[in-house]
Write a structure and sequence with these properties.
484 residues; alpha/beta; Rossmann fold; Dihydrodipicolinate Reductase, domain 2; 2 domains; seven-stranded mixed sheet; 12 helices; 19 strands; binds 6-O-phosphono-beta-D-glucopyranose
Amino acid sequence: METSPPSVAGFVADRPAPGDPVPQTLLLLGASGDLAARLLLPGLGRLVASGAQPGLRLIGSGTDDWDDERWRRRVADSFALVGADGPRETEVVRAARYLPADVTGEEDLRRLLAACHGQVVIFFALPPAITARAAAALARIGLPPGTRLMLEKPFGTDAVSARSLNDILAGLVPEDQVHRIDHFLGKSTVVNILGLRFANRIFEPVLNSAHVACVDIVFDETLGLEGRAGYYDGTGALVDMVQSHLLQVLALMAMDAPPTLDARDLRGRKAQVLRATRVWDDDPVRWSRRARYTAGEVDGRRLPGYADEPGIDPARGTETLAEVVLAVDTWRWAGVPFRLRSGKALAGTRKEAIVTFKQPPRVPTGLTGYEQPDRLRIGFGPDRLGLDVNVNGPGNPLELDQVHLMADFGPGELPPYGEVLRGAFEGDPTLSVRGDTAEDCWRIVEPVLEAWRAGAVPLQEYPAGSPGPKDFLLTPAPGEMRRH
Ligand code: BG6
């Protein structure tokens, strides 16, 4: 049974006139950090520009000794990055306040909450350990009724810390008011997986082990560390990308059709499939890879080796590329490997989910040149849908050739952070990660992390700007395929 969370003594909620929208305050903890400037505030700017959240107040807080003016400049600059500088956005900037605070201290948190008006949305743009301490302090002082919490990834640092953070949050607000952010769930192409799978007859009937040989979910970037040593060196590619974003994509690719897209149905389906997911053969030594980049050139940019980047402790052995093969133990997917990979400073960008179909049971004698299986590709940037299919080629009609059909997905109205913020402002947790799922995502990768910590999987190297270590297991991209 859900219990009512305690309320803050002395907090008086604004009372809107009947029919008026409830005023809201976004309280951003960790406001002076990089995440706020690069992703969150631009997303907020676009959301406000779209006409949503009239009268929104924005309060930033952090340990940096900023004043309102400096914060307003930061907000205005971030809004301007995405062309969000109309009258609504200017209003938000003008009313924005910055309160320096130790967000793990009860007195400071009381002061921050007292400065909020209306319904409060608290965004924890903080490292996991600080988030846990701030949440524990909030649990001691209580929250205004109806408060919603938004938490950045990584959610905890392992299954045990994720569970204990979930326990603290459960004492603060009901689960539906907790928004564990995974901005991939706000990407329009990721959400498009649902339309593609469940609003068509042609793919869903063959998305199962009878027809699919394997599924690859790949997120290769040309970006290197980009000055994020403080965050990344303690995280690495497996936790930064696979444990969070790519498992969410896997869930959408592998789940059964939900009857509706409301939070309970959709998150229930995702939870089922992730509960059935584990490392292939339970053998993380055989079925995982890790590597980090050495010096090289990417897109004409010279990058130092990861280990030589400022702020990096090479002895930690943090990987910049991770690959893991997973099994989804359901009737639909038993026996089909799901191969997840993400890497930084690679030769090219490759961001897609690829379903590779099995060979046809028999290609008729007389049709020659069958080389490649059919593939369905869902691109996450550029956002598009691709289909590699075998057809009779030009010239000799009995000689097969493969064609690549491609369609662009329409761009989303909002950037991913705008989308996830909208979910929290509207009280709709559909696009956020449910508490048990956050724990399951740790349970899935923990055997790999343990094997890596024990040194059972060597840390390979690849020059920045190269395609990555040679012996990786993934399906080649179309350009790399052997053509006949
Ligand atoms: C972030 C990771 O969550 O996602 C980054 O921390 C990564 O390392 C980024 O580059 C990729 O997402 P996007 O939206 O830039 O494609």
